[in-house]
Specification:
- The chain is an alpha/beta fold.
- It has helices at residues 11-19, 32-37, 42-50, 63-66, 76-88, 110-115, 129-146, 175-188, 208-218, 244-259, 292-304, 315-323, 328-337, and strands spanning 25-29, 56-60, 91-96, 152-157, 194-200, 223-228, 232-233, 239-240, 263-270, 309-313.
- The strands form 2 sheets. The protein has an 8-stranded parallel β-barrel, surrounded by 6 helices.
- A hairpin with a 5-residue loop joins strand 7 (232-233) and strand 8 (239-240).
- It is globular.
Length: 339
């Protein structure tokens, strides 16, 4: 890895580090949308991933899936995922809002895209009051329907709401709308349920917008998750990697959250390749951007920085390989979860 990353941590050492803290929780993000893209049965895939033994799992309420026709709701997929999570005793983080994990992140239903301009990048998407009001209505409906599921412990409100990234069309949300959305979620949540917000951190180092997004989240959330990717395409023939100040900022944020009694998470720890011009890199077994060795090292590093929840990114990808007779990712994740 880049400067500041340190030497690769051997698996036995990682095992020792994790055993030192009973509060450490390992999780992943599951996307039925990604299963469809990879031609996987989402129910079979979810069962297999749950069998790995994660503590926490993040599920997504995709707007285009839940409300495919205006004012007509279909919770069948989400209901099945929550029932299975309840049965297994998992802790679920459920995303709500217009923006959820997996490309293109803004999962607007087609009927809304026909009615409104959902591609505007000159101002926050929520400046369109019709989109904002319909989003709040959607959030209200999702929470009312799912909040009694015993597995639901956290509501993630939007996904990286303040980040302006090329991969999401440079679209973003305003702090004012996020405050309104979080207030709505808190008014509907059960007493034991908490609010999570997520943020990005740029490569090779954080930028001023990253710090502002973190401060915005600090004022609203019970837990803040940082998305940590350690090798991504640079737009040419190489990769961006973290510099020393990247890791220093992650440590600084963890200390700020600890002082403010906010849970410090890694919401996405890169455990899936991110290769140039590929939505999912599936043509080879080994890629420069991600490997079991790199995720083992990354878990050790962020744990040493004080993060006690780490959500691994890429579970559908691991299972896709396993289904195709390649067990290197599956076995590596299984070893990490069993520590």
């Amino acid at each position: 890895m880049a400067s500041g990353a340190g030497a690769v941590v051997a698996y036995p050492q990682l095992k020792h580090l994790m055993r030192m803290s009973h509060s450490f929780k390992l999780g992943t993000t599951f996307s039925q949308l990604q299963c469809e893209y990879l031609n996987l049965d989402y129910q079979e895939t979810f069962r297999q991933i749950c069998d790995l033994g994660f503590h926490r799992i993040r599920l997504c309420s995709y707007w285009n899936e839940v409300e495919p026709i205006e004012n007509q709701y279909d919770f069948s997929v989400l209901d099945w995922l929550l029932e299975e999570s309840d049965r297994r005793g998992l802790e679920v983080i459920l995303t709500v809002g217009m923006k959820a994990p997996r490309w293109p992140e803004f999962h607007f239903p087609h009927w809304l895209e026909v009615q409104q301009d959902t591609r505007n990048t000159t101002q926050p998407i929520d400046d369109n009051r019709e989109i904002a009001e319909r989003t709040l209505r959607f959030v209200d409906r999702v929470i009312h329907h799912t909040r009694t599921a015993q597995s639901v412990r956290y509501w993630q409100v939007e996904n990286e709401p303040f980040a302006r990234m090329e991969i999401t069309g440079d679209r973003f949300l305003s702090p004012e709308f996020m405050r309104q959305e979080v207030e709505l979620v808190r008014s509907l949540a059960l007493p034991q349920q908490k609010v999570v917000l997520t943020n990005a951190i740029g490569l090779p180092t954080y930028i001023e917008e990253d710090e502002q997004a973190f401060q915005n989240s600090l004022a609203l959330a019970d837990a803040i998750g940082i998305n940590v990717y350690t090798r991504v395409p640079d737009g040419h023939d190489g990769y961006l990697e973290p510099g020393e100040s990247y890791w220093e900022k992650l440590k600084d944020w963890q200390e700020v959250m600890r002082r403010n009694r906010i849970e410090a998470w890694i919401a996405e720890a890169q455990a899936e390749p991110w290769e140039p011009n590929q939505l999912v890199a599936m043509n080879d077994i080994h890629y420069p951007s991600a490997s079991p060795e790199r995720i083992t090292e990354l878990i050790s590093m962020v744990k040493n920085l004080g993060y006690r929840t780490v959500m691994l990114w890429g579970c559908e990808y691991w299972y896709w390989h396993q289904r195709n007779g390649r067990n290197h990712w599956w076995q590596a994740i299984q070893n990490l979860v069993e520590v």
